[in-house]
Amino acid sequence: MEIEVVPVAITTGDIATLQRVCQDVLGYSPTRALDKTHLKITDPAAYLGCLDMEDNPLDALRQGKRRSGIWSHFYATLLAVVPSDVAYQVVNLGHLKLHLKQGKRETIIVMSGSMDEWYDAILIGCNRSVDSELRAVTTGALHCFERVGLRELFSNLVHKIMPDGTTYLVKND
């Protein structure tokens, strides 16, 4: 059985309000540097990149966990369809909030957390030493985030592909 991971809710934010309030209070829009990036203002990554109001959205995405804690204000919910025996391994992925619903042969897992929590969970699961099916769950989550424009969050990591097609991550210090 192939493991499936799909996004069902990812913070997009009200960027117009963020712009207005920052313009009124700080005298500038936190989105002004977006034009110098590959990000579109409608991307979830654009909202997260501008949320620290420092006018460097790519740096906010790349360094947010270490620098400002801004990632904790951005939330995502993914669904995973996994073999029943894999479902209970997901609890070892840190502080994600989980809800499991058993089907006939498979389990659906609702996995939710801030980007801080997701980043830690993906680091734990995209590891050579974990079971390949658990690594498939976190590889699927990693790919979900990359598809919605959040690849910069993982740009400080080297992505290696295992023979089973899953990804393991190595810190690029």
Q: How are the SSEs placed, and which strands pair?
A:
Blueprint: E1 4-10, H1 15-26, H2 44-50, H3 57-67, E2 75-83, H4 84-87, E3 97-102, E4 106-114, H5 115-125, H6 132-147, E5 157-161, E6 167-171
Antiparallel strand pairs: 1-2, 2-4, 3-4, 5-6
Helix pairs in contact: 2-3, 5-6
Q: If strands are numbered along the chain, what order do they take across the biggest sheet?
A: 1-2-4-3
Give the CATH topology of the largest domain.
Alpha-Beta Plaits
Task: Summarize the helix and strand pattern as letters.
Answer: EHHHEHEEHHEE
Radius of gyration: 17 Å
Distance between the termini: 36 Å
- Helix-residue proportion: 25-40%
Low-confidence stretches: none
CATH class of the largest domain: Alpha Beta
Helices, by number, come to 6
Mean pLDDT: 92
Strand percent estimate: 15-25%
Task: Name the quaternary structure.
Answer: single chain
- CATH architectural group of the largest domain: 2-Layer Sandwich
Structural domain tally: 2
Shape: elongated
Q: What class, by secondary structure content?
A: alpha+beta
Largest sheet: 4 strands, antiparallel
Q: What is the tally of beta strands?
A: 6
